[in-house]
Every structure is written in C-alpha cells, then in structure tokens.
Amino acid sequence: MNLYKRMRLIFSFISLFLVSVTMAQDVSITTPKDTYKYGETVTIYYEGAISGDRIVFYQDLSMLPLRESATLAKSEGLYQVEALLEPGLYKAQIVRGGDEIVKDVKFRVSHADLPLNGKRIVLLSDPHVMSPELVQDPTSSSFIAAMADNRKLTAYSAELFDAVIDSIKALQPDLVIITGDLSRDGEAASHQYVAQRLHELKELGINSLVIPGNHDMECKNGRIYTENGAIQAPDVTIAEFREIYEDFGWDANSDCDENSLTYACDPIPNIRFIGIDDCKTYSRGWTTGNQNEYGCIPQPTLDWILQQVDDAVANNKVPVVAVHHQMLKHFNGQDDFVSASLDQGDSIARVFLDHGVRLVLTGHMHMPDNSMIWNADKTDSLLEITSGAPVSYPCQYKILTLDDDATSMQIETRFITSIATLDDVQTEAREQISKTLRSSVKKLVRQYLPKLQKIVAYYSSIDPALETVLQDIPMDVNQLSTIAVEAFGPVMMKIIFTHCEGNENLKLAEDEILEEFHQACIVACDLVFDNQDADTRAFMYTLFEAQLESRDIETTFRSMLSDKSYYGQQDESQINDLYYTYNLRPNLSGINMVTKPTEDKTVTYNLSGLRMSNVSPGQKGVYIVRKDGQTRKVLIK
User: Is the pTM of this model over 0.85?
Assistant: First the structure.
C-alpha cells in the first residue's frame, strides 16, 4: 500500500470517529422529574437517536439491565415505562451498536406512603452485631485480617444495627421481629449491645421478639481484638441467651416449650406468633463439622408447635411462624450449593400448611427471597419470607403492614444507604463480597473436591489415554480456586449480585448469564488442559458439559435467575421478593356464600358452603365453622 492510500485510510478512520463523536454529542436524553412516586408513570424524552439505538434501564448497582427496554423507532420522542418500577435509583441509557453508551439520565422512584391503618411490623434478620467493645485495637493485624476475609460489613455492624433502630423509632411500628443471628459469633458483649437497643425501643412502647440463630449460642469463634492479637470472647449458653432476651419472647406473656427456646405469644390482635429455636448446639449433641449451619426441630418441639398452631386456628388467630433456617426450596439444586437449611424443612412446612400456617419468616442466607408451597388442590398456600441482612449487600430490612383483622399483609423492603462513618453503604457492601470472592470459591472447591476426585477416578478407569489427560487436573485446593476465579469469577459475580438483589426475573439475566457461564466453562478447560491440543481440549469441554448436564446445573441457574422456586414442579411460583401483598387467611371456596344463621350457636358447613346437619366431634375432615358471627376453617384430624 503506497503512502497516498495509507493517508486516505487514516483520514477515513478519523472522519468516522469524528462523525460518531459528533452524533453522540447531538443525542440527548432527559426526564421531566428527578423523583417519581412508586406507581407513577416514568417518562423519558430523547433526541438525536439513530436507527437501531436502544433505551435500556439499570436499577441501583445492578450489573444487569432490566427487561424493560426498547429499540427506538424515531430520532426523537418520548418513552414511557410500562412496567411498575420499584423504589430505587435508576439510570436510563441510550445504547448504540453493541454496548456503546451514548447518553444517560438518572432518576429516582420513591417509596409509596405506608398504609395509615392496620398493624405495622418491622422484620429483620442476621444483624450479626459485633459490639464495639470487642475491638480494642482497630489497627491490629488480627482485626484487619478478620474483616478482610469476611463478606459481611462486620466492622460496621453495630452502626448498621443502630441505623435500623433509628428507623424503627421514626416508624413507630407495633412490633419488631428479628429472626436470628443477632450477634457476630455469640459474644456475650454483642448480645448485651443488641438487648440494650431493644430496651430503648421498649421504653418507647415498641415491643420486640427475637429467636436465636446458629451464631448466637455456644459459639467459640467470637474474638476480642487487642494490640497483642485476638483472644477468645466470652460466649453465652442457651440459658444465658434466654435471660438476656427475656423481655423479647420469654416473659410472662409467652408459652414456652420445655425442650427448647421455642415460644408462642399473641403480640398484636389476631396474631399468634411462634418463635422457633432450631439451633444445633454442642450441649444438644451436635459436635462435629459444620452441623450448626443447619437447623433442626426435634419431634417433641414440633408436636408442641402444632398444638399452638391448632389452638390459634381454633380461636380465629393467624399463626405466624419464625425460624432462622429456610424451610422451603428457593431455587432448584439449592442444597448442592448452600446446604444450610432446616432438616426436613420442606416436609415440616407442608405439615404446617395442613394445620393452617400460611406465613413463615426466616433468615440465615442474607439474601431476600420469597418461596411458596400449595396444598394438593391449590386452595391454600404457605409463604416463606427470607429476609436479607442489614450487614450484607444490599443491607435491608422489611416493613409488614397487616390490616385490622389480619386478613391481608403488605410487604415492603427498605435499604440502608448511609451511616455516619460510611457515605455509600451499598457500594461498600457489594465491594466486600467482591473482595472475598476467592475465599468463597476456595470454600466451595474444598467442599466439592472429594466429588471431583471420584469423577476423575471413574473416567480414568475407563481409558488409559483419558487417565493421562485427566492427570492435568490439579487436586490442590489453591490451584483449583485460582482457575475457578479466573474462569468463572466475572459470571459468578453477576449471579451472586443478581440473586442478592432479589426479583431476578425483572432483569435480562437468564439466557445471557447462561451463555456467559458456558463460555467460562471453555476458559476453564483451556486453563486446566493448556498442555493438550485443541481437539483434546474440545473433548474435555464436552465431557465437562456432560457432567454439568447430569447435575442439571442449567435448571438450577434458570430457577435462580427467573426467580422461580420449585422450577418445573407442581409448586412452581414466582413471588416478588421485595414488595408483595399476601392473604394471611385462606380464601376458601364457598366461604362468602355462607348465610348467617339466626340462632346464636355453632353451625358447620362443608367447603362448598352447604350447611351440614350432623358432624360428630371426632369426624375427620376440613370444615367451615361459623360461631358468634366469626367464620373460620377447621381441620379435624
């Protein structure tokens, strides 16, 4: 190519660049309001768009755009968001070509006003408070190392808890519920700190109810950080936990199970609250491995709980159950990834549903997610609300508003955005998860290494040539972790953050992330088998994909990223994780057609609303019973 042609080519590229820059400068995107009310139509004005430009939306710190998007048909006009945008900070972008952001504009959607009537409950879980008195020297290497290798904002935990307490004081709710893991690691000082704050609420007339989590009793991991290093912090026994929180579940107004810290009380009208102690502790015989990561309800305690539920239903009260560990499945394959739920939780939940429980409150996972199961004929359901944690991204708590007769409940999620020592809580919490990615992957690799060794041994026994290739797979945890982070780190971050944020189905997540995951599998195979030729690497990738398929990994990701619990099963449901309205009492067929009897006595109907003339006290079945103007479902077993 001669000099003249080279110069023409260079000038052509420069011209194209200048034209694209000029066109980008001519594009504008605006919104007439900085803040919209929840439920209000959002309007975006744009000018200077070209054919193929798209308008996309991102919420808060999400790495993935919302499904709400469109290709612009005109160079200028307005775009109105058809979807109901949830409260938060949004960014609308005009995107050109692949991912070139031409222009963007930010706006906020504010929370709707809370209902004025009814009863208000603040719900939170897993504050993991570390008392400030445990940090005697914040510059000590032991403290710095402990905080660095922690996906929670533990260093700010007390301040984050105080921020929730301040919000509660402003809200003046009728009740506060905390579903376990009140302390960082069971330190007596941390429990005293939490109890002191709850007493402040009590003095203002705001009652609180708590249950223990797996980090609250008989823990030996609590530390005091001194200038000379970390020393073990005094923890609390089961009896000491009850004594510290006596006013918050174990006072004279509660009925208590003699076999555990499980209790029942009627904190607000029409509600029977049952707080379950499902903790596996040393004194209860759980002494090996990570058993305390799971929960357990022994049979005597379960029998006691069901008696309380039956009594509540018989007296037209709504039974509300709280337990630290999740009972239901929130995505397919959940046990293969986290393995930290309630033993036999799904089965126990179905027993609860049979007895009339429609609401279970849980925590432990630090991720907001709702799941639901149904009875056989889909006439009744049980909703499990798993709360996120103030100390983990995205740092939140919930407000539950019940109508006066506890028939309906509105769920709303609130976020902690700043505290005195941290201007941007959300960004810091997300970065903390990113910083600890390697340690999280290392834990997962260590968990799965025995399975990997068995798979390699099996395939090696089939073919000597294959055995030689499989020797390239490192069996060292550190080496495997390094490969996993390099290959899967970016897509793992998208999956983790998207799941943490909840309502995954509102984002363009499912197909895009699955494709990115398959590409990461290719990268992993190339890293492991870098000494092999291209054909061998391709074959090993096919073998790797077959293993993933046999474990139905794609279904797991589709279940998670579509926000569908029990994906592809009878109980499949897609429940809004952050904002939702739920009926606390079943809407039984025929119940509204029952004619009020003239006589003031108990009258029994079947589920079709037909009056039954003779039902013996021991006759099994489900009935509608009307007495003194009150109608309720009764189960005779």
Answer: yes
